[in-house]
Amino acid sequence: MKRLLATFLILLPLIGQCEEFLGFNLAEQLRQLDRAVYESTLPLKVDCNSSEAIAQVDRTVSNAFVKDILGRDVEISAVSKEYLDYLFTVIAKAPHIPFDYPQDGCFGRAHEMVKILDKFNVNSGKVFLEGNLQVETDKSPNGKVFWWYHVAPVVAVKTGRKKKVKYSTPGSRIVRTRMEDEYIPHVLDPSIFDKPVPLSEWIAIQTKHEGARVDRSYYTRKYNAFPDERKKRPTDYIKANEEYIKNKLEEFSNQVDDGKDNSHEANYNDWNFDF
User: Fold this and answer.
1) Tally of CA atoms within 13 A in the half-sphere of 273 that contains its CB
2) What is d(CA 45, CA 82) in angstroms, rounded to the nearest whole number?
3) Does the pLDDT of residue 51 top 50, yes or no?
4) Which of 28, 140, 249, 267 is most enclosed, with most CB atoms within 10 A?
5) How do strand 197-198 and strand 213-221 relate by DSSP bridges?
6) Do 96 and 134 fall within a single domain?
7) pTM: predicted TM-score of the whole model, two decimal places
8) 80 and 42 in one domain?
9) 141 and 205 share a domain?
């Protein structure tokens, strides 16, 4: 039963891609999706015109590292671009995260996004940008939003290439080189993008206005929620932040559109793919 439920939940966001839902063999799609989940692949696209056309995504996860503001390693996952695109699509449909209210609450959106990534066993970090920031968006009544800081999750994308890395063992002055997988950190920010983007692109969209200024940009562990925690290295989600973030997300959800019911409770446990 759990296996069928997991398969059905994965299929839900894909059904919307079909213009005529009854035009393909649902039973066959479910069987293929069921096999895909338990063979470490995930469906990327459902082709309504063919019961056999399901693109498969490599969802293997490896480790990568970025540096925090004090030069310490922050471990994050490295995945294929296709898999990160898939995860972005899943996250962007989360009903309890107010992506349509970019005026405030980036700390809450990032907080919930990393928890969804946790559900997929993808370890993310966070990237903070501080300064005079502005983004043009039709999600704001003014056509733009202004921030003094912004934060979003970061995951590495594997390029498929290798790079030389210098290293030394503790207590030794001998510097050696080794070949490691090359990766590029990508930011997941559905409030201003429709796909994961490299860090440089994420910064650029916030700093192309007159008077733009970047005071600092830095990575943290996924548990850090606010800029004043930039030098901390928590090993779990900070309990004191949980209730505050939950309440603020509910507040921002209710401000998205007074004509709609946006009072989604910010509880990711009520919305997940249990597989």
Assistant:
1) 22
2) 11
3) no
4) 249
5) unpaired
6) yes
7) 0.71
8) no
9) yes
The encoded tokens of residue 164 equal 């030389």
125-154 pLDDT per residue, tens:
999 999 999 999 998 888 999 999 999 999
Q: Which of 105, 123, 119, 100 is nearest to 270 (CA)?
A: 119
The whole domain housing 50 covers: 2-58
Report CA torsion sign: 151, 156, 162, 166. positive
Number of other residues whose CB lies within 10 A of the CB of residue 157: 21
Q: How many CA atoms lie within 13 A of 64 on its CB side?
A: 25
Beta-carbon contacts of residue 257 (< 8 Å; ≥ 6 apart): 100
